[in-house]
Design brief:
mainly beta; four-stranded antiparallel beta sheet; globular
Length: about 425
């Protein structure tokens, strides 16, 4: 009888414990609870919803338009613009988005992306520079030239790039017309390169070392094949060159296992063994004086910097690459792995933190990382854009749940979204590097 009562007591105790630890409403406990939210500068606002395609990049213009891009598979267009809170259309036109049937070709059984330099193949990133006396407000479009192709099993493959397909395109958003296109030789953009993001310094040659007076673009090569590094473009001549290729600071951390929404993540692709995220150099951001480039790989807890002087030195200098490697600085850990970067007029560097559903700040004044905003809706902020209205806009695309990373099963739930948050300290778009 005593044994039975003891067992009954234990069962009752376990039942109470279960009731206490499985609650869904935090108001039901007296314990401190992480509510998953932090937004001291004002609420996180929902600006736009994606119902047809999952976005990658975005750029917020001064006239209120939001330009968006989608890496290409079977979608009708890769570059678009929002027309209301739930829809986008091809930009600048459907005709300038290459038809799906022309995205790739085959030579001797090997897939290659299109070499078409006049239409968009697969756009990865966007950036807006403000209007100056010599240049209109410009939407800069980074086309990888490498669409994603599905084989008969549904496994993703990415064709090699051909010169002409990978390109940097400048669009005057006042009249929606292309006014400049830059392509790359195969010695700079390798067939297996993958351009991921871009930043600009448009000042004259007295302020940008080694430039010809029309400014420079900095582009990161985040290729999964591993030859990561920077590509620099002289916007006056179109010349381009590489820096920091294969430096340890731009490479992925091997065998890295992040956690998204609490679940350890392994890369699972059809026809491939289970492995780890292979992407290297991802986030990049210039300091407001243009002298420092901040950057990091996706699969690293560490942030790095290098003087832009070392990135700008021309290939004719035999010591240029050696000097760049020698001048890399580690800024230490920043609270987790980070995806894209962005910056504001106060010199703060914003870092998307997909493991924490958050955006952190690196503050060059305090040399520390700080939490900026955290919200359960931030399921992978894939691109960020600071606008002149004092807000930072960011895409939410649930990337870890995409079919390509989950054995062909798409676990995402529409809609995707554009969110925005108020910048701290009256911050706004940094424009000092666009004044000539």
């Amino acid at each position: 009888m005593k044994l039975l009562s003891t067992v009954a007591g234990l069962l009752a105790f376990v039942s109470v414990i279960k009731a206490q630890v499985t609650f869904q409403n935090s108001s039901q406990t007296i314990l401190r609870v992480d509510n998953g939210s932090y937004a001291p500068n004002g609420p996180v606002e929902e600006v736009h919803y994606y119902y047809n395609q999952w976005p990658i990049g975005l750029a917020a213009a001064s006239d209120g338009r939001i330009f968006v891009c989608y890496t290409r598979g079977t979608e009708a267009y890769t570059l678009g613009v929002t027309v209301n809170t739930t829809a986008e259309v091809a930009y600048p036109s459907q005709a300038l988005n290459l038809p799906v049937s022309e995205l790739n070709t085959t030579f001797n059984g090997i897939q290659f992306g299109s070499a078409n330099a006049s239409a968009f193949v697969s756009v990865q990133a966007l950036y807006i520079t403000t209007a100056t006396a010599s240049r209109p407000e410009t939407l800069w479009v980074l086309d990888t030239g490498r669409p994603t192709i599905m084989d008969a099993r549904g496994a993703p493959t990415m064709p090699y790039a051909q010169p002409g397909g990978p390109k940097l395109v400048a669009i005057n958003i006042a009249n929606n017309s292309i006014y400049q296109t830059y392509t790359f030789p195969s010695s700079v953009h390798y067939p297996d390169s993958y351009m991921n993001d871009l930043r600009f310094d448009l000042r004259n040659e007295s302020e940008v070392p080694f430039s010809t007076g029309k400014g420079v673009a900095y582009i990161n090569d985040s290729s999964n094949e591993g030859r990561n590094g920077f590509i620099i473009v002289d916007l006056g001549t179109g010349d381009s060159w590489r820096r920091l290729t294969q430096d340890p600071s731009v490479l992925r951390t091997p065998n890295n296992v992040p956690s998204y929404q609490g679940f350890p993540f392994y890369l699972k692709q059809i026809g491939q063994p289970i492995q780890w995220q292979p992407e290297g150099l991802d986030g990049i951001q210039l300091s407001t004086d243009g002298k420092t480039m901040y950057y990091s790989p996706l699969t690293s807890d560490y942030m790095y910097s290098v003087p832009t002087y070392n990135l700008l030195q021309r290939p004719q200098d035999p010591l240029a690459e050696l000097a760049a490697h020698n001048n890399v600085s580690s800024l230490g850990q920043r609270g987790g792995q980070a995806n894209g970067f962005e910056g504001d007029s106060n010199g703060l560097v914003y870092m998307s933190m997909p493991e924490q559903n958050a955006i952190n700040i690196y503050n060059p004044s305090t040399l520390q990382a700080e939490l900026y905003v955290r919200d359960p809706r931030i399921l992978w902020a894939d691109s960020m854009s600071v606008c002149s209205d004092g807000y930072i806009y960011y895409n939410i695309n649930q990337l870890p749940y995409q079919a390509q990373w989950n054995n062909g099963t798409d676990l995402r739930t529409f809609p995707g979204a554009v969110l925005r948050s108020k910048l701290p300290g009256n911050g706004t778009k940094a424009t000092a590097l666009y004044v000539v």
